[in-house]
Structure formats: C-alpha cells, structure tokens
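Following up on my earlier message about pyridoxal-5'-phosphate. Here are the inputs again, as you asked, copied directly from the submission form:
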Amino acid sequence: MGINRQNYNVDARGYYGKFGGAFVPEMLLPNVLELQENYLEIIHRPSFKKEFDYLLKDYVGRPTPLYLAQRLSQKYQSQIYLKREDLCHTGAHKVNNTIGQILLAKALNKKKIIAETGAGQHGVATATVCALMGMECIIYMGAVDMVRQRPNVERMKILGAEVRAAQSGSQTLKDATNEAMRHWINHPTDTHYIIGSVVGPHPYPDLVARFQSVISQEIKWQLKEQIGTENPDMVIACVGGGSNAAGAYYHYLDRPQVQLVAAEAAGLGVDTDKSAATTFLGSEGVLHGSRTLLMQTADGQVIEPYSISAGLDYPGIGPIHAHLFDSGRAKFCAVTDEEAMLAGIELSRLEGIIPAIETAHAIAVLSKIAIKDKVVVINLSGRGDKDLDTYIKWGKY
Ligand SMILES: *Cc1c(COP(=O)(O)O)cnc(C)c1O
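Thanks, got it. Here's what our run produced:
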C-alpha cells in the first residue's frame, strides 16, 4: 500500500526489516563469509539450476500436485487447494532444501556434510542426499531426542550417516546445534553445514527460502491452469522455523491481494508453560546466529518449547517470519495440540490424506479464520506416516 512499497525479502546485508543478520562467533566468520560471498553466484549458474531442476523432477518427484480438496471445500464453503509436499520423496518438503544445499556444497568443493536434527526429519533428508551424492555425513542429535525419535536414528544409519549424540545441556536440539557449530569451526575448509529451515546466520534463511520457493513457483502456474489466475485469496502454512511457509509464500510476498497465514504450535495453550507459539510468547533477541523473535526469559535464557509435533517444537522463528509478523504482512494463528489432532483426523476422513502433525496445524486454521467463498491454498508440508505413534497415543478417532 502507498508509495513506499514494503520489501519483505532479504536485503543485501542479510536483513528482513530489523531481523536477520549473522551473529556468529569470530571463529565461524570465515565459513559464513564464504557462503555469503558465493551462494548467489553459484545458485544462479545455469549448470547448477539444471542439476537442481533435474533432481527435483526425477528424484524428488516434482512438480507436486495442487489438488482441489472437494469435500474439505464443501465443509468450509470455500475452494481449498492442497499443495502436496507430502508426496515428495522422504515424505515432506525438507528434501527440496537438502538437494539444493548438497549441490552448493559440491560447487564449493566440500567433501563432508554435517547437520543437526531435533525430530530427525532434517537429519533423514540430509542423510538421503548424502547417500545420493556419495558424501560423508555426520548428524548431531540430542541424546534425549535420539531415544524419543529412534526410527529416524535408524533411518539415518541405514542411509549411511553417522549419528553423534549431543550429551550437553538438555540433550535436545539446541545442544545438537552447538555441537554441529563446534564441529564446523574445527573443519572449516572441507565441510558444509546443512541447516534445515529458514534460520541461522545470513545467508541461510535466504538460501533455504530460495530452494523452497519452488513450492510457490509451482502453485502460481498450477492455479493459473486450474482457475485462470495465479493468485489465491490466501496461503496457509505451518511454521516451525518456517521453511515450508517461506517456500509457499515466496512468490506472493509482494502481492498484497494474497493473504498470508501462518499456523504456530500453541501446545497446551499460549496461557500455559507448554507452548511453542513464538509470536504470541516471544520477544526480540538472537537465536542460532540471527536476530529474530524467540521464547526467552527476562534475562535472555531460551525457554524450552513444547508441541505435540516434533517439527514445530522450536523456540524461535526464522527472521523472515519475524518480519512478516512485525509488519503485519502475515497473520499468525496459534493452534493447540488438540485442535491440530482433530484437524489431522478431519483431513484423513474427508480426503483420505493423513497429514503430518505439523501440517495438521495448518489445516486447523480453516476453522479459526473467515474463509467463506475464498480460494485457499494450504501447504501440505508432510505425510503422517512418521506420526502414527502420536496419533495412536492420542487415540480419539
Ligand atoms: C520439519 C517440518 C515442518 C517444520 O519446519 P519448517 O521449517 O517450519 O517448514 C513442518 N512440516 C513438516 C512435515 C516437517 O517435517
């Protein structure tokens, strides 16, 4: 609106408004600078684009369908399209990014890959592309998470990755991140660190958003093919760190007629101490190398988040989302465990699609905001196979 058009994308310094940047220990600066100075040139090379597009098509299975969910639409008296990232190889959108980053690592002549993982989904997506490219792969994971997410630990091992337990602190994601950073400091020349969401120091948020932007690039032409216009009224996505949402929003950021809606995990509720709804409960600070919104105590200690879905159980959001929230460009909804589980069952019953519980948070938004007669795209970030135990334990179906 007005003549000063807002810019929702990253600027040359790695900022989204006042959020972003690269706050890293001095020892890590050379690694980050190497990426900052080279990433755009590399990902714009025709040879890079060609291999990226080829692998997305023949390995990942893109384009993923944009499916008109008829019975769901009927129930909400609207036109709801599901962007089927659940049909990607490995069952979620994360592989779009790991394919891109392993090609970047190769272009930078790196021989080894490290990553951190919480629930194990990003670890599996990373181990997958390392197997594909024959690269050595070390995944750091909190010792507590390794017990909680045993099947994913075994998947990574089957794929040939080494899984290293982070034994410090709460033995969860943030400790795994610290150990991965330490590893990277000690192996700066031969190792690339694959971050799994639009978080971390610049250029990672932009790098990951660009790789995931294939989602909205496809939505545009698929919607045009189906209803004659590229623009839906609304795009809904769940936000953990925010990579699937960033990908689904990317080509709509500068089209204010398209409303952007984010679903955050409220856990047991934003008025309890068991939540992960960052925009409701968070404040400004630095998390994992960038200035963003995060859940922290008055003296700056990161608060352990909680959500029934492991992929949304993160104490911050990427800087792009902090800016979309701060500027009002995106609307944020807090969805409780219970609301998400009910929405997951609803999608299963109405459309025959069992969603990941992360994704179920986005579905739950349908009953929380006004969507009557609107064209709505929901980014179906992943399938529910990995969450079967959680559905069973919850039991109300
Ligand atoms: C990891 C994951 C998420 C959350 O990550 P984002 O970076 O916020 O997209 C959401 N859905 C699924 C299926 C996931 O595996």
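One observation from looking it over: Residues 23-55+94-208 form a domain with the Rossmann fold fold (CATH 3.40.50.1100). Hope that helps, and feel free to reply on this thread.
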